[in-house]
Amino acid sequence: xxxxxxxxxxxxxxxxxxxxxxxxxxxxxxxxxxxxxxxxxxxxxxxxxxxxxxxxxxxxxxxxxxxxxxxxxxxxxxxxxxxxxxxxxxxxxxxxxxxxxxxxxxxxxxxxxxxxxxxxxxxxxxxxxxxxxxxxxxxxxxxxxxxxxxxxxxxxxxxxxxxxxxxxxxxxxx
Length: 174
Prior knowledge:
mainly beta
């Protein structure tokens, strides 16, 4: 009878878009592949339908103090790394800092994602015509060198960002 079998008449699988890998971006492994610790984020922002996470510990990390992780588009729990990413896949990037910086705050504005570190203020947006951040289109550039204190957290009112200078004494406005 027809109910005893199944004939797949569908299209060939799309190998360029693999299934989720259940990748944990906060797991740190040693050289043998054994899990040594988990580093949870302390700085978060929502920007352009992505969840951005940074500063896996209060002091950042030794291996990735300026790493920023962005979720897949519209999927705030998917940080999977794929071999050939498309525009909707997760993003991982590091700021090209000239010294040891630690991410202190991230704020979303209409123009860009603003990242405040211990030594500079960074403008992050997509490169090219679209200016939307994707794994294939990202532009990060420092535009000021004041640095932000770890506490209190930066405050955003509309597109204005108030923060305390890294010295802890001078208030600043972006």
